[in-house]
Amino acid sequence: MAVVQLSTGEVYYTVQGQGTPLVLLSANPGDGRDYAAVIPELAKHYQVITLDWPGYGQSALPVNYATLGVPFFYQVLVEFLDALAIPPALLIGNSLGGNMAARLAIEHPERVVGLVLVAPGGFTQQNWLTRSFCRFQGSRYALSPYLFARMYLRHRNPTIEAMLAREATEHATPERRALNRAVWRSFGGPDNDLRAVAQQIKAPTLLLFGRYDFVIPAMTDGKRAKQLIAGAELVVLPCGHESFAEIPDVFLSHALPFLAQLADRHASSVST
């Protein structure tokens, strides 16, 4: 892996393939390895860039990790794109990563060619129940990353087993659990909410939700995201929270045609 120094600390990343940049953004907790099942195929067509969020994968634990939330990760994303001088890119983001990708399209539309949002955060109708759940997951009584992942990942395969192993080991340290809990507390607040600004997304958007995902449900959050993002396409897949890892072939059957159309259109606009 390569490393880049940001104001938030060292961030490790990988670059594979050539072509239009395609940035992959993972959930909380998560890192670039979560996309292992689809990177080889994606890298045949694009310059695939993954990063490990601070505190996960090989990236160093950030300062004040027990108090950080959604704005911190967005700062990391913008600084990362700036540091690598990444031109307008396609983005695939899951959960927290989906929220970050959508936020980039809102605040810096010139940097985004298109979005594939996989169960993105930020479209939940907040109420006492959702806020209570975020507070619970942000407390010392929270379900461990391993137990929680076992609940929201519907399928099992080598990629999923590797993810679960990381949840039980790397992400189970006291420091990383404290970071995870801090982000969960942020999920229940206004910093995570995209509903009031999602209509500003002009980039073509593919929404991929899991039919069996209880964390960010397709029938509520998915439909709401489709209503708010003009022209967005919603596809509900037979999986849980992370279709690219659970059912990679099905994920690619939807993502690849969508990405190809956007990449061709972008290449034509650049050449003219």
Calculate Rg over CA atoms. Answer: 17 Å
β-strand amount: 15-25%
Determine the oligomeric state from the structure: single chain
Helix content: 40-55%
For the terminal residues, how far apart are their CA atoms?
35 Å
- Look at the structure and give the mean pLDDT: 96
Give the overall silhouette: globular
Structural class: alpha/beta
**CATH class designation:** Alpha Beta
Major sheet: size, sense and barrel closure? 8 strands, mixed
Number of strands: 8
- Return the domain count: 1
**What is the CATH topology?**
Rossmann fold
Trace the largest sheet across and list its strands.
Answer: 1-2-4-3-5-6-7-8
The CATH architecture can be named as 3-Layer(aba) Sandwich
- Give the low-confidence spans: none
User: Which sequence of SSEs, written as H and E, runs from N to C?
Assistant: EEEHEHEHEHHHHEHEHH
At the fourth CATH level, what is the homologous superfamily? Answer: Alpha/Beta hydrolase fold, catalytic domain
Q: How many distinct helices? A: 10
How would you describe this protein?
This protein has one domain (2-271): Rossmann fold (3-Layer(aba) Sandwich), CATH 3.40.50.1820. 41% of the residues lie in helices and 17% in strands. The protein has ten helices and eight strands. Strand 5, helix 3 (96-107) and strand 6 form a beta-alpha-beta unit. The longest helix is centred in the C-terminal third of the chain and has 24 residues, at 248-271.
